[in-house]
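Obj: model holo form, ligand = 6-O-phosphono-beta-D-glucopyranose.
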Amino acid sequence: MKDLFPKDFFWGGAVAANQFEGAYLEDGKGESTQDHVSAAAFNKTRQVYENIEKDVYFPAHDGIDFYHNYKEDIKLFAEMGFKMFRFSIAWSRIFPTGVEDTPNEAGLKFYDNVFAELKKYNMEPLVTISHYESPFYLTKKYNGWYGREVINHFSRYCEVLFERYKNDVKYWITFNEINCLTLDIKAFQGGSILYNEKGDAVQPKEIPEYMRYQALHHQFVTSAKVVKLAHEINSNFKVGCMLAYICQYPLTCKPEDMMLSNEAMQLRNYLCGDVHVRGYYPSFAKAYYKENDINIKVEDGDEQILKDGTVDFCAFSYYQSICVSTDPNEERIQGNILDGIKNPYVESSDWGWQIDPVGLRWSAHQLYDRYQVPLIIAENGLGANDILEEDRTIKDPYRIDYLRSHIKEIGKAISEGVDILGYTWWGPIDIVSLGTGEMKKRYGFIYVDRDNEGKGTLKRYKKQSFEWYKKVIASNGNDLD
Ligand code: BG6
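Output (holo structure tokens):
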């Protein structure tokens, strides 16, 4: 099938500030929450530190040094023909502690320069305002998003961005994968919450559930407030939400498995999607909160704010599908954000994530049927253990296979009526893994010479997939050979 993709389809790539910028405290930047997270070994959990310890390696401090290489890196993206580049702004570069009255000019200037570079190559920016980080000071002062005060600080940060970049950016995303706050492991990454009820600094899993949902409520209110603000500042702005689409099939057609899958899809995906797109909490969320004694504080006026600030599009990440089952003895597998039951019909990546391109088409249908707003596939990708050969080449046919199979399914979804604006591959250049902090887990079309301990020249090398993606973009998705 040919010509499935619209002419103005946004092909591109996506990254996040704390996984690639580096330049940790440069030009007035403050400490960010992710600057406090250590690296971990293969599939192990990263630790959160209250203080920056000298003998601990924090990979966000250097990233891949995009801060000093942005011109060269964007040039490489342009060479592949990118039409869109998704990246996040580091809040602590603009407001080092989050509470200042005046923004840090040097931080704003850095992003001026990035936008100018993108404009040079006609690349549309897709800006994530919050990608798993906040100024660390807000964690110390308010326990991150658990504190309602953060709503105003974030709104001020957004106002500064919207005013400053009103002629540079059209597409904005408020919170990356906001629904991750429904998961215990993400209390710090998603909500910047470090302290338990007693005020002790603890690892994310020890934060009580109600605190996560309170923080989530604050993010919902903030997101809705800034969507409204964005439209007031520039009526051409398009502001979207972003979900980690956690695709959970029932392992069998046993009615109880079907119901389990339904409940899991509601709680993990649609709670957040519904609030963002429809503007109110769904009834299943209220029932879940009641059943689990989650008493969150909702202030007068919050419901109206949610109604008035619904989003223009829905962005989502999709890496894999998992299964759910009522049988506790089924084999479990690793996953992005959430692990699950093994699906006997699909293969897995080096990191154990199941590879299911049809699941991407299915997910796009589910979201579009439910919300009827344009979609952006803001993340999709394969983390693999690439080898830099002696002749400085990198052969990654497995990445090409992954891409090909997923792009085919996107084309089919579009031909079946799903409105998809763009596809930004996760990590078009190798970056630090969010989950483990490893460099060894590579997603890029561009290899970066850096290892798990932070050693290496940081030199960039094109992989085999570089030319392949370039060809796909040039043919607007027609040449997938
Ligand atoms: C997404 C995040 O969940 O998964 C990214 O938005 C992250 O920040 C990506 O990098 C891939 O996960 P990982 O753990 O392989 O880096």
